[in-house]
Amino acid sequence: MTPRQISLVQATFAPLGGTADAVAQAFYARLFQLDPSLRAMFASDLTTQRAKLMQMLAAALRGLDDLNSLLPTVRSLGRRHAGYGVADAHYDTVGRALLDTLRDGLGAAFTPEIEQAWAAVYAALAGAMRDGALANQPLAA
After folding, report:
1. Which contacts of 70-73 are long-range, i.e. CB under 8 A and separated by 24 or more positions?
2. Which position among 32, 96, 124, 141 has the lowest Cβ density within 10 Å, counted as fewest Cβ atoms?
3. What is the number of structural domains in the chain?
4. CA angle, 23 then 57 then 77, to 5°
5. What separation in angstroms does the CA of 59 have from each of 38, 63, 73, 99?
6. Residue 141 lies in a domain
């Protein structure tokens, strides 16, 4: 993840702020379309979850300029998600849903360079969450 990629991601997220709930609704619709079994992991009313998603995403993107401070928080989030039943394969589905949602939401502004930037940022954050989830697993005998 390069400084330019971080800048591109932060810049393209900012315009979505005014439509945060709509973006979150589109994200969850796409996520459940890709893997309907994930719906059971969430409350029937996603209002609070949508707000949490967008707040966490905004905080993570702001923190990209200081990864050393951000990554412990992201790893902790991964540990908590493992406790909710999130499996490693779910991260790939979430990444695809995120990129699809951004592609739809940004339209022509979602250039290949911006897509690569978002993919790199998501890979870094998901990698830290996966590390946190692994730290939550008991060691094999």
Report:
1. 71/128
2. 141
3. 1
4. 130
5. 24, 6, 10, 18
6. no
Q: What CATH code is carried by the domain that includes residue 109?
A: 1.10.490.10
Residue 68 lies in a domain: yes
Question: If pLDDT is split at 50, 70 and 90, which confidence band does 103 have?
Answer: very high
| Backbone dihedral angles phi then psi of residue 44, each to the nearest 5 degrees | -65, -35
Write the pLDDT tens digit of every residue in 19-75.
889 999 999 999 999 999 999 999 999 999 999 999 999 999 999 999 889 989 999
Sequence length of the chain is: 141
**Cβ-Cβ contacts under 8 Å for 105 (sequence gap 6 or more):** 16, 19, 23, 26
pTM for the whole structure: 0.89
Kindly tell me the sign of the dihedral angle through the C-alpha atoms of 63, 69, 75, 79.
negative
CA-CA distance, 56 to 50, in Å (whole number)? 10
pLDDT of amino acid 125: 94
How far apart CA 37 and CA 21 sit, in angstroms, is 22
Range of the domain at 76: 3-134
| Alpha-carbon distances, residue 38 vs 11, 16, 26, 30, 101 (angstroms) | 30, 25, 15, 11, 17
